[in-house]
Design a protein that fits this description.
The protein has about 180 residues and is an alpha/beta fold. The protein has six helices and five strands. The chain has a five-stranded mixed beta sheet.
Length: about 180
């Protein structure tokens, strides 16, 4: 059996940062934890960045992930929002690097494509697919948490083909090659 790997997925943000941890157990994955950190808007930007750094360090020290997968900032019309998001991502990455955790970055479209088969899927569609895949009891109140799990699962899907000599182009391709993984209701 392959050695278990823990993947920490992060959906960066300066007000809400989602995180999800999964265990890669070879041919299956299990959810370890998912939640969000909320940062108060009253705090200055530098103080929120410090709290992001400390929060990611706390996750690393608690769960000891082997890899960190993070969503890349996307190009938007609001340059200030994009800069803030990029800072949040950079600080989260710095925390991983501080603990010598390899970092992997994925574009939002790539993450959605790997989970739902459609790079334009909504957050709700991503959460729904993850609910089936990870057997989540309830949909989390904040979609930032399921977005973070999606980043970790995307990383799992991207790493598995290289290790097994297979190539998955998305969710449909994965199911076609792994028909026993789909749970019927």
């Amino acid at each position: 059996m392959a050695e278990e790997r823990i993947i920490l997925g992060i959906d960066p943000g300066t007000q809400v940062m989602g995180y999800g941890l999964i265990a890669d157990k070879g041919k299956k994955i299990e959810l370890i934890a998912l939640d969000v950190f909320k940062f108060t808007a009253k705090d200055s930007q530098p103080l929120r960045l410090k709290k992001i750094f400390e929060s990611v360090l706390e996750l690393i020290d608690t769960y000891h992930p082997d890899e960190l997968a993070i969503e890349a900032p996307f190009y938007g019309k609001n340059v200030q929002s994009m800069l803030k998001l990029g800072r949040a991502q950079g600080v989260a990455m710095a925390a991983g690097l501080y603990r010598n955790i390899p970092i992997f970055e994925y574009a939002p479209r790539k993450i959605k494509q790997s989970i739902t088969g459609n790079g334009s899927s909504s957050k709700e569609q991503v959460a729904g697919m993850l609910g089936n895949l990870m057997k989540l009891d309830d949909s989390p109140k904040l979609l930032d948490a399921t977005d973070a799990v999606a980043v970790a699962v995307c990383h799992y899907f991207q790493r598995k083909p290289a290790e097994a000599g297979k190539a998955y182009t998305g969710w449909k391709s994965f199911l076609d090659q792994n028909p026993g993984r789909l749970m019927k209701k």
